[in-house]
Structures are given as structure tokens and as C-alpha cells.
Design a protein that fits this description.
alpha+beta; single chain; 97 residues
Length: 97
């Protein structure tokens, strides 16, 4: 049994169809965005909602952000969503400097 998780996770933000609130689904055992969305589809069932998928690495840092128009749509990477990789332009220099 591993006490330390050596992989990251995906957080999937979606809109709940019946009560109308924003919800979060956490996928910890998947390696790709599409596997995380497939797990979400399997567990949460048949309703259509736009998705926001955030990938966190093993130490809790946000690495990637994707958006999808629906549960079966193509994921689009949001490069400007957060200062993800660091660099010398914009706000990312302040956070990673």
C-alpha cells in the first residue's frame, strides 16, 4: 500500500443539471484528460454540460487547464488561464520569480 500518492489528479468543474449549481469531480486514478472525462461520464451519467478540467501534479501545483463545450467535445488547452510555466512576461514572473 502506497501512503504517498506519486501521481497528480484532475479536477473537473461542471454545472449540475437538476439543482443548477457548480460542482467539482475529482479524478485521481487517471493519466490523461480524456481518461478523466471518461471516468466522469461513467460515474456522473447522461447530461450535457460544459466542462473545465484542471490538471494538478503530485505536489499540488496547477499544470494545465482545459475547457470542453460538452462531455463528448474536444478539449482545448487554455494557455492564458493561469501563470502555469513561468516566464518573463505578465504576472507569471511575479509568481515564479
Amino acid at each position: 500500500m502506497n501512503l504517498i500518492v506519486d501521481q497528480g489528479c484532475f479536477k473537473i468543474y461542471f454545472r449540475e443539471p437538476h439543482c443548477g449549481g457548480n460542482r467539482v469531480f475529482l479524478s485521481t486514478e487517471t493519466a490523461t484528460v480524456m481518461d478523466a472525462v471518461a471516468e466522469f461520464n461513467l460515474i456522473k451519467g447522461g447530461f450535457d454540460t460544459p466542462l473545465r478540467v484542471e490538471r494538478y501534479n503530485f505536489d499540488g501545483k496547477l499544470t494545465d487547464v482545459f475547457t470542453m463545450d460538452g462531455r463528448y467535445a474536444v478539449p482545448h488547452r487554455k494557455d492564458d488561464a493561469y501563470p502555469l510555466r513561468g516566464g518573463s512576461t505578465g504576472l507569471s514572473a511575479r509568481y515564479n520569480g
